[in-house]
Write the structure tokens for this entry.
Amino acid sequence: MTTTWPDMRQRQFVLGPERVRVTILTTGAETGGRHDFSDSWLPAGSMTPLHLHTRYEERIWVASGSLTIWAGPDKIVLRSGDYHLIPTHVPHAIQSGPEDTHALHISTPAGFAELVARAGTPAHLLTPDTQPDLDLFMAVTTELGDVVLGPPGTLPADLDDAIPASPEGAQP
């Protein structure tokens, strides 16, 4: 039996204005949609927009560096060897620490790798002048059931602040 390995060059992408480097190790197509698996390098201090996923959970394991995850009411700091699960429908933002961070990412069912492949820039095509296509990113994000709730720097607690308190005695 011969095993055919994918051309990894075709699976390396750069995502977002902060140029997060992502290599797709396993696609949803390869697992019957059960999960996907990716390897990411996040530049020091880079941060995702506040968002949530309606169709898949995220599992993140830090290989080196650190990540801070704000998920719902929780703030979690992950260091090398730490792992965290972000359930569906939980608003969250992720920021790398003061050093570049290497992390592995599993989404179940598959979803994140498709976003990367469809909205990211193939790494071999990246130039110093390459800009991310944010309109494409938002279109693919929406199609995959992800919801962007705020720009980088927005945290889940900011959502509570944006909702005005109801007057006493008011009925929903």
Notes: Residues 8-150 form a domain with the Jelly Rolls fold (CATH 2.60.120.10). The first helix runs from residue 112 to 119. Residues 55 and 145 are 6 Å apart (CA to CA).
